[in-house]
């Protein structure tokens, strides 16, 4: 999340973790078996779309999310002067496209101790819009941070019944009595201090589920799901941030964990936070640039949304496997564009060079197979090739990452079914001179090409130490063309 200082929340969470005990999931088993009432949200950053001109600029996001089974966008707002104009557009577009939205207040910007009336006022302004998400007939409201908010004063200012699901922290708000549900933001394995795990300080996402569930004591849990985390802002901006959380197969593993856990709500973190590399929306979604295009250009993530589709359907149906929701054979693959051993320090844009936590990544190319029937998955990374006997349903595989072309195929009964060569090679050169630990995500069969629009490049050259063209290159014809494998 942009501009975020996480230290306070992470410390609060750590305090909660130390007393975490196994959660008794029995309480919600009937709900889960019925497979009803579950909802999927995606966190949507309003801070990078100030340049949108009309509700039509939101339509493709709304359509894509709805088609994937996402029920509502959590509109993350700060106190910017464009906030209400953009909320108007978003609510209007959602209504047109039969989507729901709700406001997620970013308490890095709203001061929890003094903003209850302001927050309540904004809720009131949007509460009666047709696209407003309601849960149990109440206006749904969420947050990023916000411990210390006067919830009663906020409710009173809103003047309507609220279903309040904030990102409060068990360690900072010991009693959950003021909320209807709790939202846990920590979607990545971490060290309890807002950085990647270290030996002896290794907190899983599941431990966060347990801490929240214990705290909520039967109230609804809004669980996080995120594919990745890499942020690499250098001195060209005022909020230097340069770290990763372990990614690798997180997206696949976490979805399987979600099917087991079966919380009432889940939130995908995020739809469009390009700066932290956890977007699953497309690059073409209109947005401005705070410098993240250095590590976002030519890095589509649409395959991650594709992978989520059968998982979302299975989650809503209360099933433990996505298998019966897989409608066609598909491979989703991803990898970083360079090996960890590549030294970019001389030309990198940050003060500290390699992102903190980089060593928690594997040098692997990951493949998730979504298969209608058993098949043989073959992945080739440079000179490394591996084949796997994959069962019908979803399965994950990996091959050691090597410089060169990346190709993938599915075979059955000795015949090739589908194959593709990735548009992006693994390179032995630093991309635009920097450490880029974002993921390139592709699919077989290949999806439509996707690239940043012109406004997504405005911060591209700021801070770069090497000449690098501010434009998409993968769809321009210079990339390797798929051939039969
Ligand atoms: C953290 O624990 C996971 C298993 O839960 C393990 O795979 C990983 O290597 C550990 N990381 C560190 C830095 O100890």
TrEMBL record:
- Provide the GO MF annotations for this entry: glucan endo-1,3-alpha-glucosidase activity
Signal peptide positions are 1-20
InterPro entries in the cross-refs:
Glyco_hydro_71 (IPR005197)
Swiss-Prot/TrEMBL keywords? Hydrolase, Signal
Instruction: Give one Pfam family, short name only.
Output: Glyco_hydro_71
Keyword Signal attached: yes
Q: What is this protein called?
A: Glycoside hydrolase family 71 protein
């Amino acid at each position: 999340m942009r501009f975020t200082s996480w230290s306070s929340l992470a410390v609060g969470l750590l305090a909660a973790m130390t007393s975490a005990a196994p959660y008794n999931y029995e309480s919600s088993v009937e709900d889960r078996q019925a497979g009803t009432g579950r909802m999927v949200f995606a966190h949507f950053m309003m801070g990078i779309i100030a340049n949108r001109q009309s509700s039509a600029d939101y339509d493709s996001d709304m359509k894509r999310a709805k088609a994937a089974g996402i029920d509502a966008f959590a509109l993350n707002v700060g106190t910017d002067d464009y906030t209400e104009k953009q909320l108007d557009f978003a609510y209007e577009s959602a209504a047109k496209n039969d989507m729901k939205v709700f406001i997620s207040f970013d308490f890095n910007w709203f001061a929890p101790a003094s903003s209850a009336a302001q927050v309540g006022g904004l809720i009131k302004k949007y509460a009666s819009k047709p696209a407003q998400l309601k849960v149990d007939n109440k206006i749904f409201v969420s947050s990023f941070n916000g411990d210390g908010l006067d919830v009663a004063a906020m409710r009173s200012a809103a003047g309507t019944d609220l279903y309040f699901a904030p990102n409060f922290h068990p360690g900072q708000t010991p009693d959950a009595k003021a909320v209807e549900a709790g939202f846990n933001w920590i979607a990545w394995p971490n060290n309890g201090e807002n950085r990647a795990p270290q030996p002896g300080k290794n907190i899983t996402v599941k431990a966060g589920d347990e801490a929240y569930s214990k705290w909520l004591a039967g109230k609804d849990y809004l669980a996080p799901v995120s594919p990745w985390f890499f942020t690499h802002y250098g001195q060209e901006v005022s909020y230097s941030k340069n770290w990763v959380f372990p990614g690798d197969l997180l997206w696949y593993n976490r979805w399987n964990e979600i099917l087991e856990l079966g919380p009432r709500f889940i939130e995908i973190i995020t739809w469009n936070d390009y700066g932290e590399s956890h977007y699953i929306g497309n690059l073409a979604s209109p947005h401005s640039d705070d410098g993240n295009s250095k590590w976002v250009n030519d890095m589509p993530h649409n395959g991650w949304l594709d992978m989520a589709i059968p998982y979302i359907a299975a989650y809503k149906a209360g099933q433990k496997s996505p298998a019966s929701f897989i409608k066609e054979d598909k491979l989703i693959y991803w990898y970083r564009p360079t090996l960890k051993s590549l030294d970019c320090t001389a030309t990198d844009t940050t003060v500290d060079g390699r992102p903190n936590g980089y060593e928690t990544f594997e040098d692997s190319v990951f493949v998730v197979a979504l298969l209608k029937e058993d098949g043989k998955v073959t992945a080739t990374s440079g000179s490394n090739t591996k084949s796997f006997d994959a069962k019908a349903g979803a399965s994950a595989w990996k091959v050691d990452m090597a410089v060169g072309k990346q190709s993938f195929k599915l075979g059955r009964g000795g015949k090739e079914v589908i194959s593709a060569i990735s548009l992006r090679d693994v390179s032995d050169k630093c991309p635009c001179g920097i450490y880029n630990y974002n993921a390139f995500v592709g699919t077989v069969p290949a999806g439509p090409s996707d690239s940043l629009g012109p406004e997504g490049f405005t911060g591209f050259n700021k801070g770069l130490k090497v000449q690098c063209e501010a434009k998409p290159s993968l769809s321009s014809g210079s990339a390797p063309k798929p051939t039969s494998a």
